Amino acid sequence: MDIDLNLLKVFAAVAHxxxxxxxxxxxxxxxxxxxxxxRRLEDSLGVSLVHRSTRHVRLTDAGETLHRQTADALSAxxxxxxxxxxxxxxxxxLRVAVTSIAERFLDGPLIASFVEAFPxxxxxxxxxxxxxxxxxxxxxxxxxxxxxxxxxxxxxxVTGEQREVAVAxxxxxxxxxxxxxxxxxxxxxxxxxxxxxxVAPWRWEFTEQGRGFAVAVAPQVTTNDxxxxxxxxxxxxxxxxxxxxxxxxxxxxxxxxxxxxxxxTPFPGFHLYYPNRHNLAPKLRAxxxxxxxxxxxxxxxxAR
Length: 304
Fold this sequence. Notes:
CATH superfamily of the largest domain: Periplasmic binding protein-like II
Number of domains: 3
Order of helices and strands: HHHEEHEHHEEEEHEEEEHEHEEH
Strand content: 15-25%
CATH architecture of the largest domain: 3-Layer(aba) Sandwich
Strand order of the largest sheet: 4-3-5-14-6
């Protein structure tokens, strides 16, 4: 039987995600295209492969059997194609999952210089603060703080040490005073961050006499949008907290002022991380080398 292998690739994505929309997002196609591909495969085989519902997809017995018998073969084909691609120049889609607070990676120059240097690479950046296995989700690499990267990953620094800061506008501090100790935050209006609606606001972490401690502030404003936090603080809405790089331009212009600096110490910065593989695809090797060169250039400029 002659079957289009692209249909099996779509089927494998549906079997993995159990959702047409998620499979479509993973493959970079429309939900309709996924649905049509599954229908074509079912028509070719003469058997139903999935049970469809509004939000969920479940494999039929025939679908389970097909998935079990083709998964290893499809994986082997992907490895073979990647190995063949190692002989050519960097090309193809490079999928990277980046935390929203990796300001140095996301602020523009690093990405712009990379795509100019490698025009045959399409860089697909997903900004997310969800923690997940990048291999399982189909990403080539990720960017996160070094301290939260899995031990079985290879990681290279994108930045040097980072520091979190608490900031507020001069106008807010003039009205409400400066906190002298992190415990004073309990009587201040705070602007907090959370990665998702069902997650509690992030705890603010401090250090005193060499010992770390966290403060669970009760933010009057909570959001998953760092830009909203910055704008609210600039407007005098309260004290907010985050990576110093995020606030640096506003601090340098005097629009925001840091507080509690003596209780905030540096920690390992952001890293590009990727699976430990014998052969790296040229597109990923290109990004790794570019990140290293970019960081070296930035370090030299700061040292002048």
